Amino acid sequence: MKRTIFSFFRGLTVSTSLPGYVIFFIALHIHRLAIAQFTVTGPDHPITVPVGGEAVLPCHLSPRTSAQDMELRWFRLKFSAVVHQYAKGQDQYDGQMLEYHGRTELLKDDITNGNVSLRLRPVRPSDHGQYTCLFQSRVFYEEAFLELMVSAIGSDPHISVDGHQDGGIRVVCHSTGWHPEPQAQWRDHHGQHLPSASEDISKEANGLFHSQISIVITEDSNQNLSCSVRNPLVNQEKIHMVPSLAELFFPRVSPWMVALWVSLAVLI
């Protein structure tokens, strides 16, 4: 014969042949497990920080519970990719990834209420992406996900002439130092997008992006142009205005000059 143990744990049944004190301690342990549960909450929106700045990644327990005796861990895509770890009442650096050495700090001022934030500085392009914040007690653990977005506004666009192509002059627009990958385009004097002859967005050794786009100017391209490079994360752009290049590379002979030369020829 089996019976249910206490109303707070429905569905658990044990044999009535077990001693009463064993049943009591089993139920008490299960009850403690049930009330020890908590949830972990992070920000509900990505945190955006410029390269070289300071990021604060908040995490807190609900309901309010002291985390002083818990293990706390911030990691990247896998559990072993440790950004920062706290256990046994102090910070633990043995398993921390080398790229985060000396750049992390656990803010513990409100740890007794379950509010703990991780400070990361200076921020690098490689810090961009998802983080996991994990709280673990003796009998339970829970985690939350955070998104850190790293931004950088690059250099002013630089214009250069790169020889002849398809019966015209190939003009190139360069800009470097962007994050994340920028959006670059040519525009006419009305601000309308013009198709590029080539586009090349590449990542440099420092993790920032370099943009290079080109356009072919022909004799009929009698208009002012601009090169725009934009950071889509923070919606900021840099623009370089280019005066009409067709007149510079394809000078036209004016009618009055033709008339003058004809008149001189007749006189001679």
UniProtKB/TrEMBL annotation:
InterPro entries: BTN3A2-like_Ig-C, Ig-like_dom, Ig-like_dom_sf, Ig-like_fold, Ig_sub, Ig_V-set, IgSF_BTN/MOG
Main location: membrane
Localization of this protein: Membrane
A single MF term (Gene Ontology): signaling receptor binding
Recorded GO CC terms: external side of plasma membrane
Highest taxon of the lineage: Eukaryota
All residue ranges annotated as the Ig-like domain in the record: 19-151, 157-240
Entry annotated with the keyword Transmembrane helix: yes
The keyword Transmembrane helix belongs to this UniProt entry's keyword annotation: yes
Segments traversing the membrane: 12-30
Keywords for this protein: Immunoglobulin domain, Membrane, Signal, Transmembrane, Transmembrane helix
Gene Ontology annotations of biological process type: regulation of cytokine production; T cell receptor signaling pathway
PANTHER family listed in its UniProt record: BG-LIKE ANTIGEN 1-RELATED, BUTYROPHILIN
Protein name from the UniProt record: Ig-like domain-containing protein
Organism from which the protein derives: Pelodiscus sinensis
Upper classification of the organism: Eukaryota, Metazoa, Chordata, Craniata, Vertebrata
